[in-house]
Amino acid sequence: MIPDLSVDAVDLHVANIERDGYSIMHNAIEPKLLAALHDEIERLQQVRPGGDIPPGPFTGYVTRRWFDLLNDADLWQEVAVHPWIMQILPQVLGDGFLLSTMGTAVVGHDESDQAVHVDDGVYGFPRPHPNLVCNTMWALTDFTEATGATRVVPGSQNFEHDPDLTEAYDTDALLMPAGSIAFVLGSCYHGAGANTSGEDRVALTINYCNGCMRQQENLMLGIHPSRMLSFAPELQDLLGFKTSVGAGHIFAQDPRLEMQRHYADQSTHDSYLDRRNDLHNERTGAKT
Ligand SMILES: O=C(O)CCC(=O)C(=O)O
User: Fold this and answer.
1) Which one of 39, 221, 261, 288 has the fewest beta carbons within 10 angstroms of its own beta carbon?
2) What CA–CA distances, in Å, run from 81 to 12, 99, 280?
3) Which residue from 143, 141, 119 is spatially nearest to 132, judged by alpha carbons?
4) The model scores a pTM over 0.70
5) Distance of alpha carbon 51 from alpha carbon 144, whole angstroms
6) What digits encode the pLDDT tens for the residues 213-237?
7) 100 ligand 1 Cβ < 6 A
8) CA–centroid distance, residue 229 to ligand 1 (Å)
9) By C-alpha distance, which of 112, 130, 111, 277 is closest to 209?
10) Does 288 have pLDDT greater than 70?
11) CATH superfamily of 7-219
């Protein structure tokens, strides 16, 4: 298991995120997990070829994005609660923050750069506002200029407006070796770089939000309750199994109690998952 970050390291990342809108952690993904993630992405390519969403100008034409990952291999449960991320995010998003969406971003060769955007733009809040979202970009291969490292506009979390998606901004590349994880604040202007390397840039985007915001993926509906009850309590909390200030209760109690009464006697095997991959073409509109 990866050792905890020191208090000084946590403080440094929190300060970087506050000042620049991003921060990079090196050697954050242990070699065994890194290898297992590559194997899992190859498996996803076999069972749901090309990713879970159709090609498009914003999400990419040769970028493979798989979602709903907590219904896939067990290792995604480990990814969601990475210990260093869990140490840092309470100071960025506040206690009771939630997992918002988990996806892959496997950017293929010849993909052009993505429009510069913000991840908390979905909420449409006037700026400046408190931190609503923080993304974590997991580099499973090297992030270089050529592979299409995520590009950021440092300090843009303080800008008064969300970016104009048609505009070209001065950006810096988040250069980092495979095994690193970068935090990118939801209000920091950013986008994937163009990939001219001839190889895939393999990454995860694991995105968290403040506990009073709606999660981007409807995780509470997408995962069967009895399956969620089999997850570690820390992950259940991130899915919404605990109250955040006054939000998220049932009968003014910890919602976990009612979830257990309701679903604990049901099988953790969700039979829908047996045919979920077979519906891939129907979901993405892919021709068979
Ligand atoms: O893949 C990247 O480098 C950034 C992805 C991103 O920002 C997004 O898809 O919202």
Assistant:
1) 288
2) 20, 9, 27
3) 119
4) yes
5) 23
6) 999 999 999 999 999 999 999 999 9
7) no
8) 31
9) 130
10) no
11) q2cbj1_9rhob like domain (2.60.120.620)
Nearest CA to 183 out of 146, 137, 226 is that of 137
Which strands make up the sheet holding 172-173, listed edge to edge?
Answer: 172-173, 151-152, 190-191
Amino acid letter, 27: N
Q: Which of 190, 197, 202, 206 to mutate to test the pocket of ligand 1 (most atoms within 8 A of CB)?
A: 190
Pocket of ligand 1 contains residue 163 by CB under 6 Å? no
How far apart, in whole angstroms, are the C-alpha atoms of residue 263 and residue 191? Answer: 41
How do residues 9-54 score in pLDDT, each as one tens digit? 999 999 999 999 999 999 999 999 999 999 999 999 999 999 999 9
Instruction: Identify any residues that bridge with 40 across adjacent strands, giving them in sequence order.
Output: none
What would the two tokens of residue 79 be?
């990814």
- The structure tokens listed for 159 are 């800008």
Q: Is the CB of 190 under 6 A from ligand 1?
A: yes
Q: How many CB atoms lie within 10 A of CB 188?
A: 25
Query: Distance from the CA of 116 to the center of ligand 1, in angstroms?
Result: 9
In what side-by-side order are the strands of the sheet with 181-185?
Answer: 22-25, 181-185, 133-139, 203-209, 98-104
